[in-house]
Amino acid sequence: MHKKSLALIALLASLGSVAASASDLEVSNAWVRGTVPGQKATGAFMDLKSVEGAALVGAASNAGVTQVHEMTMDGGVMRMREAKKLDLPAGQTVSLKPGGYHIMLMDLKKPLAKGEIVPLTLNIQGKDGKTTEVQVKAEVRELNAMPMEHKH
User: How many whole angstroms separate alpha carbon 17 and alpha carbon 15?
Assistant: First the structure.
């Protein structure tokens, strides 16, 4: 039974989905936009859902710099800035997606090709103020990839 549980966890992680009971966070649809040679930055995207409520307060990866970012349009000009904290209201799905909040991977050491897996660490602050790490494996999609449409 134990081996079957480990196999199921490994399968879910390889599909970009992981549930972390320590932080009460569900992560799904994790992916990273591919890059071309010489490109030093890209974004990671996913859906986050906290059962009890939490906040995304940071991220890490094997990129030189990893930050939670918010992209907004201001008078027709795209602006991006680091977000120190992203609230994850209880029971609501918060989508990190192109054109909004996302994980910015900067100072990349090599191009990211379709099909590669990028390990990410999300720093999640619970309602008790304690921060836990949630490990996510995000698959690289093509450079022009967009989020998958969800069917309900």
Answer: 6
In 3-state terms, what secondary structure has residue 2? helix
76-101: pLDDT as tens digits = 887 888 999 999 999 999 999 998 99
pTM for this predicted structure: 0.79
Residue type, 130: K
DSSP state of 90: B
Rg (CA), the chain: 15
CATH of the domain at 94: 2.60.40.1890
Number of domains in the chain: 1
Split at pLDDT 50, 70, 90, the class of 24 is confident
